[in-house]
Design a protein that fits this description.
Blueprint lengths: L1 H18 L3 E4 L5 E5 L12 H12 L9 E2 L1 H17 L12 H7 L18 E5 L4 H9 L2 H7 L4 H4 L3 E8 L7 E8 L4
Parallel strand pairs: 3-5
Antiparallel strand pairs: 1-2, 4-6, 5-6
């Protein structure tokens, strides 16, 4: 019975090492005494209350022209990283200080955009950004007052209406110029 349990335990550990990285702590005398099995969970699509609130405004706006919108983990991760990057590096632009725009960044993260979006590393056909407003509602109202932003966010033409996946990002840094940074990425899945 003990032999079967040991075999099962060994198989379980073997399986876990294939699924995760196995780290062993080794004493000075060469004997291991601890095994850590980090389990990496995929974060939820939206990681903060601010992101959830902004996503609700995007999806539930009565003027939304898209038939449906689905939160995409990759787009959400890039949107969140974009907001954090602007706060940390103290800039406000669709193109980061490294010369990369949102189209490039989502593709580098593994999202497949349609081929006709091209491969310009500074291109932006997918992102709206805002900074300075401390609530999702105030940010949404700012965007709705801008024809180009409302066109993008509400899918008011056939190009944007085809962008049925989204991600939302928010970052707050009291030491940055605008303190609050908001990003919405919408994209049309590629082939």
């Amino acid at each position: 019975m003990i032999k079967i349990r040991l075999i099962l335990l060994f198989c379980l550990l073997l399986l876990l090492t294939r699924l995760t990285h196995l780290t062993t702590s080794v004493n000075a005398d060469g004997l291991s005494n601890k095994v850590y099995l980090p389990i990496i969970f995929n974060p939820p699509c939206l990681t903060s209350a601010e992101e959830v609130e902004l996503a609700q405004l995007l999806v539930q706006d009565p003027q939304q022209q898209r038939p449906s919108l689905t939160c995409n983990d990759i787009l959400a991760q890039v949107a969140h990283a974009r907001a954090a990057d602007m706060a940390e590096r103290e800039y406000f632009s669709h193109v980061n200080p490294d010369g990369h725009g949102p189209n490039y960044l989502v593709e580098q993260a593994g999202y497949v955009l349609p081929d006709f979006y091209g491969d310009d590393p500074t291109a932006n056909y997918i992102e709206s950004i805002a900074a300075g407003r401390d609530t999702a509602e105030a940010t949404w109202q700012q965007w709705m007052g801008s024809p180009s932003h409302s066109e993008h966010l509400l899918g008011q033409n056939s190009f944007f209406k085809a962008q049925i996946e989204y991600g939302v990002g928010y970052a707050y840094d009291p030491d940055s110029p605008y303190k609050h940074y908001w990003v919405v990425i919408t994209a049309q899945p590629g082939p």
